[in-house]
Amino acid sequence: MSIFSFVKEAGEKLIDLLTPGNANASEDLKKHIEKVGLGNPDVHATVEGDKVTLTGTVATQEEKEKVLLAAGNIAGVASVDDQITVSGPAVAAARFVVVKKGDTLSAISLAVYGNANQYNKIFEANKPLLSHPDKIYPGQTLRIPE
Q1: What are the residue boundaries of the structural domains of the chain, listed by start?
Q2: 24, 26, 86, 125: least surrounded by Cβ within 10 Å?
Q3: Beta-carbon neighbour count of residue 59 at 10 Å?
Q4: Model confidence pLDDT, tens digit, residues 69-100
Q5: What CA–CA distance (Å, rounded) separates 71 from 146?
Q6: Alpha-carbon torsion 36, 121, 140, 131, what sign?
Q7: Chain segment 97-138, per-residue pLDDT in tens
Q8: Is CATH 3.30.1340.30 the right assignment for the domain spanning 2-86?
Q9: CATH fourth-level superfamily of 95-144
Q10: What is the C-alpha to C-alpha distance for residues 139 and 39, in angstroms, rounded to an integer?
Q11: SS3 of 46, please?
């Protein structure tokens, strides 16, 4: 369990989610998670200012990481407090990279793996959060599998 930092100014704009006193924040975030293609995991959210706290249970470490990224890659979210447990087998957590201006998946792949042609590995690890390898933006946080 830990806190992940995100670029507050980057990400999808979900105005209602971060409205102070939003009693529906947990439901709004669940709808967003479902909309990006992660299904309907047993996850609950509370929002305090620019911090989202996630609790609940998911099946795999990969699902947990994708839910964290779905919550963190929202404009206005500066941090996500991870209180999610994984019910499946324990595996090592992936690394995370913040996209910089001018980055491509190939450039990130070259920096991380030493081979630009491994970009598809990063793309697949971030599906369904990414719809196309060329559609990344500065400030976005991506999963980097081993």
Answers
A1: 2-86, 95-144
A2: 24
A3: 14
A4: 999 999 889 999 999 999 988 888 889 999 99
A5: 23
A6: negative
A7: 999 999 999 999 999 999 999 999 999 999 999 999 999 999
A8: yes
A9: LysM domain (3.10.350.10)
A10: 25
A11: strand
| End-to-end Cα separation, the chain, in angstroms | 20
Residues 56/42, Cβ–Cβ less than 8 Å: yes
Quick one: which of 72, 5, 7 has its CA closest to 45?
Answer: 72
Q: Token digits for 126?
A: 């971030």
Residue 102 CB neighbours (<10 A): 7
The letter for the amino acid at 29 is L
DSSP line for 120-142: HHHHHHTTTT-SSTT---TT-EE
